[in-house]
Structures are given as structure tokens and as C-alpha cells.
Amino acid sequence: MRRNDREVTDLDGIVEILSRADTIRLGLHDEPYPYVVPLSFGYEVVAGRVVVFFHGACEGLKHELIAGNPYVCVEAGIFYRFAEVPGSVTTEYESVIGFGRAELVRDGEARRGMGLLLRHCGFEGFVYDPKGLDRVAVYRIVLDRVSGKRRFVG
What we know:
By secondary structure, this protein is α+β, with helices and mostly antiparallel strands. Helices cover 21% and strands 49% of the residues. The longest helix is centred in the last third of the chain and has 14 residues, at 107-120.
């Protein structure tokens, strides 16, 4: 990271940023361009590693790209405001970026992932039709590398 004075290195700080982010952007391999899609998400920390869950249709471009190459990039950012500094304008923000492998999960792990997603989206305890899990694909990404960054003026 070029500006290590803005780096968030501790896991608690990274998780705290994720707790306030409402969307992740998932970067996938496509040709000739990368494909990035915004998603709702849930997360947890397991054995010192961030684990992200998301869901989507059982078919379509996102599903096809993951099947072809499951190595992905995940970004979450929180924009606060533009701010004037001497001679310039900058942004106040916090962000997390991580890399891992997207894996389709089923049954109990899919239910757990949906529970984490619903909790993060403000619907903890929401009772959904369990047959609905037959119509969606739930993915888990264990982040192999993750870092955070923030900037606040003054």
C-alpha cells in the first residue's frame, strides 16, 4: 500500500469497517475485461480470517464466471464526504479489499450464510421460506488476504 499511514492493519479495525459497509463489490475474471458486481453480503470471522457470504441466481454471468475461475476480489467502501484541504479536495472514506476463492455452499452452510447476510442487512431472525434456498446460489469466500484503508481530514 502506497500510503501506509492510512492502512488499517488490525483485524478488528477491518471487521469494524465491514460492519458499517452496506455493499460489497465482487470482482470476477472475464475476457477481455474484469466484471464487477455490487452485492448485499454477510460476514463472520473464523480462526482469524474474514469469511464473506453472498447469494444470487443459480444461473447467469456471475454464476458462470465463478464456475470458470473462482478466484475473486472483494471490495467494500464507505464514502463520507468530499473535503477541502490546502490546495486540493480529497475524500473522507474507509475501505476494505480482500482476495479469496468463491465457493458454492449448500444445506446448513447456505442457511448459515443467509442468516449472516440477513443479520448484516438488518433483518436478523427474519423467517424466510426454506424452499427459497433451492432457487438461489449461496457463496462463501474465505479471504486469504485482506487489508483496510481510511482517510479523515483533521
